[in-house]
Design a protein that fits this description.
By secondary structure, the protein is an alpha/beta fold. 29% of the residues lie in helices and 19% in strands. The strands form 4 sheets. A 6-stranded parallel β-sheet has the order 3-2-1-13-14-15. Strands 5, 6, 7, 10 and 11 form a 5-stranded parallel β-sheet that branches. Helix 4 links the parallel strand 5 and strand 6.
Length: 355
């Protein structure tokens, strides 16, 4: 008898200072481990992006946050691909030398990794990213010229037949800020992550194709106290390679209610078996939608964040575990059809329900 694929979603919200996944791709070991014990892993760029570093996970699906929320709500499905043609948008605000560094990185992924990229577009106006911090300490931001971004994406889609969009926006350099220093030493919130999410959300919402963002920044001065969790960002002049790799195999969105016919390999929310999420960051739209499905919610206590939204406060029935190692054990048991209670030293007797 054929069993349906065992599908796990791994979420680490962006810009909330997650102890694991709040830095430069430092949740990638978690994703690699989960991918070994499931048939399909659905996760997002915040988990798999590590600047110059990335890892090929053939059964992982790289899904931008806005698109993931729509998938979790049942508004769209995910269609696996062999390879996307990736279009590249460069912010007009990027200086000529820094722009060339990014173009050379893009060419390197074509020559060395065999990725399929279209010709690139420079926005007709500077995007002008501004960074913000919420009262909780989470990062977010805005762009002054979103229409310029959308026009560039439209050009890539209509003229170059791009199937996914990589965006490189010039971000403010604030090398002396306390927030950046804390982040580089592994005890703060990524100051740019929230603004990055705003950029990719905008493109996915408008065009329903995969999108991810890489910031353009000047190299930072050497820091002997640098945390290993941030070290991937010190390896070069650009964070673009991991984005291009992720987008090259990102699933396409199948929007419900359109004329597009479903295909046998499409993934829909009712196919999700389990969700792994930090225990204090359970308020996201995607998780709230998944909590209404049959999926098992696994909340990891050790992955602390700046948020204070536990599953119990939202009425979400979640299994709390201490660590990702314990979460892996729960997933193994769940895939085998074994109740976690059966692995403990004591099992309570059945009770009789009143009719």
């Amino acid at each position: 008898m054929n069993k349906r694929p065992y599908t796990v979603v791994s979420i680490v919200p962006t810009g909330v200072g997650a102890a694991i996944g709040g830095y430069a791709g430092d949740a990638m070991p978690v994703a690699r481990a989960i991918a070994q014990i499931c048939d399909r892993l659905i996760t997002h760029p915040n988990v798999l992006n590590g600047a110059q570093l990335y890892w090929n996970l053939p059964n992982a699906f790289y899904v931008e946050g806005y698109g993931f929320d729509k998938f979790a709500a049942g508004s769209c499905g995910l269609r696996p691909v062999h390879q996307n043609r990736v279009g590249l948008i460069l912010d007009r605000g990027i200086e000529p030398e820094l722009r060339l560094r990014h173009l050379q990185a893009a060419d390197a992924t074509r020559a060395t990794l065999g990725l399929s990229l279209t010709d690139y577009v420079v926005t007709d106006a500077q995007l002008q990213v501004e960074l913000r911090t919420s009262a909780t300490g989470a990062s977010w931001g805005t762009i002054a010229n979103p229409d310029s971004l959308l026009r560039a994406a439209e050009t890539l889609i209509s003229q170059a037949q791009a199937e996914a969009i990589a965006v490189v926006a010039r971000f403010p350099d604030d090398t002396e800020s306390e927030a950046l220093q804390n982040y580089r030493q592994g005890r703060g919130v990524d100051p740019i992550a929230g603004a990055e999410a705003v950029i990719s959300h905008l493109v996915v919402r408008e065009f329903q194709i995969p999108c991810a963002h890489a910031p353009a920044l000047l190299p930072l001065p050497l820091d002997p106290q640098l945390s290993p969790r941030c070290a991937a960002e010190e390896l070069g002049y650009t964070f673009l390679p991991c984005v291009l790799v992720g987008l090259s195999r990102a699933p396409q969105f199948v929007v419900k209610g359109t004329d597009e016919l479903p295909q046998p390999g499409d993934i829909w929310v009712d196919g999700v078996d389990a969700v792994v999420v930090p225990a204090t960051a359970c308020g996201g739209s995607g998780l709230l939608s998944l909590s209404q499905s049959r999926a098992k919610i696994i909340a990891v206590t050790d992955n602390v964040t700046r948020m204070t939204v536990p599953p119990e406060a939202l009425g979400i029935n979640a299994l709390r575990v201490k660590s990702y190692l314990e979460a892996l054990g729960v997933l193994v048991a769940d895939r085998a059809g074994i109740s976690p209670d059966a692995l403990s030293s004591s099992i309570s007797s059945l009770n009789c329900l009143s009719s």
